[in-house]
Amino acid sequence: MAALVTLALSACVSMPPNDHQISSTVLTDTDDTTMGRSVTEAVASNGGKTGVLLLNTGLGAFVARAVLAINAERSLDVQYYLLHRDLSGRLLLDQLLKAADRGVRVRLLVDDMDMAAVDLGIAVMDAHPNMEVRLFNPFARNRTRLVQYVSRFGSVTRRMHNKSFTADNQLSIIGGRNVGDEYFEAGAESGFADMDVLLAGPAVKEVSKSFDLYWNSALSYTANSLGEPVPSDATKTEAWESLQKWVTSKESSAYIQALRTSDLGRAIKSKEVEYHWADVEIFYDHPDKISADRDQTHLHMSRHLSPYFDDAKSEVFIISPYFVPGKRGTQKLCGLSEKGVDVRVLTNSLASTDVAVVHAGYLRYRKKLLKCGVRLYEANSKLVMRDANLSGYNVENRRRKKKLGMSRSSLHAKMFLFDRRFTFVGSLNLDPRSITENTEIGAVIDSRVIGEELAQAMLNKVPKIAFTVTLDENGKIRWDGYENGEPVTYTREPHTGFFKRAGTQFMRILPIESQI
To answer: Would you tell me which of 8, 300, 349, 441 could form a disulfide with 378, CB atoms 3.0–4.6 Å apart?
Structure first.
């Protein structure tokens, strides 16, 4: 019966043809741009390596994107999983449109997961002569999304989780942040402690290559190809004027004032950014991963990262907000620990996670990891944003964090450190969804300077913002940490109520691990 229902649903859902798509590729003639000249000179004087700047604060991360958009002269290639229509989202779109008005070619690629009911807005942006917008792996517009979650399960449930922002094929930002207030410290309700990396030089070319693969994929659709009519001139004018009016109304907001006086913004504009120069490799999933069988691992970026774990000699530090290692991952981490490698994992606590079902998956492996010597830390939702600078770099004025404030905080950074030399920063979580279902991108930075600073920062800061999870003499889990400067100990999931704990335990037994 269930099969008949699914067949009936799928028969009602159809995707329009996508064979009229016009392909395009990165603009390579950008060495003579302002950014091109600056980067070329810096790369030449630093042995052909890539400049690296970790973006550890939300405000700094937004400023970096805004400055790249403002200073772009030829092209902007922007790729995101989520693009919210809030303060930071609208401000960024405004900068993209202004760049297009200056003659910059703007290509915006967004996963369709969060783009319901915005096809007209997408079509309006796409109608700009210098701007193209595409949606990746879209839902059909002739049926509700809920129906498609059933009828197209295994298809629309696999998403493009990549995040990249590239200007003039010279500077690029990749990492964990989507576009939304919670990622850039612009909202009062919640916030994510996250990490991006600004790259200058050779590695940027590989980010651009990745973008082109996704942009020209058969899974990338324009709004018009999904059925949205080309907007009239009056509709376009009304939409653009409305956005400008809205942005003008926010000119006096505390967030925009903070952007104007940003330390990082001044440094980028004056070409005074103090990059670390290193060899950097860019790894990414092939877009065909979304539609291919899951055993087609040659399309997966995880195969490139596995050797870094296998070859670790002394330390592996893992920061993964969604951490579900599975049987194989648990076996690998335990194997490292048993051969003397100090393995430490920072992930979200039940109170700090924004996806409780992922925490339920993590619970299946927590005790086994502890028993084999892996050190576990779970973020304290009351503290993680207060001291979220995990990198040791101070690229922003930290006084502003207190003014902007957050009432709820969660870990969202994805970062792995191997032997204080190789550092991964990207969009990849250590969970089945990132490794098998979705597509991801990230950078591996070969730098002992960065590795040492990160390791020291994490050793000093993690115990202050997270609970140290251990087993007591009876084999039961306990959480030790600090609150209000005083040591605290919990014997059940900190800062959670009975029903949340019970619900998570119930989800733990569900056979859904491949989807979390």
So the answer is: 349
Q: Which of 86, 212, 342, 419 is catalytic?
A: 419
User: Does 412 qualify as catalytic in the annotation?
Assistant: yes
In a domain, 82, yes or no: yes
Q: pLDDT per residue over 213-263, tens digit each?
A: 999 999 999 988 888 888 999 999 999 999 999 999 998 887 788 778 888
Percent of the chain with pLDDT over 70: 91
Burial class (CB in 10 A: 0-12, 13-18, 19+), 473: exposed
pLDDT in tens, 469-512: 999 999 999 999 999 889 999 999 999 998 888 888 888 777 77
Which of 215, 219, 226, 110 has its CA nearest to residue 156? Answer: 219
SS3 labels along 247-311: HHHCCCCHHHHHHHCCHHHHHHHCCCCCCEEEEEEEEECCHHHHCCCCCCHHHCCHHHHHHHHHC
Tell me which of 49, 289, 401, 412 is the catalytic residue.
412
CB 175 within 8 A of CB 370: no
- 286 catalytic? Reply is no
Quick count: other Cβ atoms within 10 Å of Cβ 491? 10
| 72 and 218 part of one domain | yes
Q: Report whether 148 contacts 270 (CB < 8 A).
A: no
Considering the domain boundaries, does residue 230 fall inside one? Answer: yes
Domain count, the chain: 2
The yes-or-no answer on residue 163 being catalytic is yes
- pLDDT reported for residue 259: 79
- Are residue 327 and residue 183 in the same domain, yes or no? no
Say what the pLDDT of residue 12 is.
Answer: 58
* Band of residue 441 on the pLDDT scale cut at 50, 70, 90: very high
Q: Which of 126, 168, 194, 285 is catalytic?
A: 168
Could you confirm whether 161 is annotated as catalytic?
Answer: yes
- Catalytic residue status for 29: no
Domain coverage including residue 325: 284-515
- Which 3 state secondary structure label does DSSP give 178? coil
Distance CA 495, CA 76 (A): 43
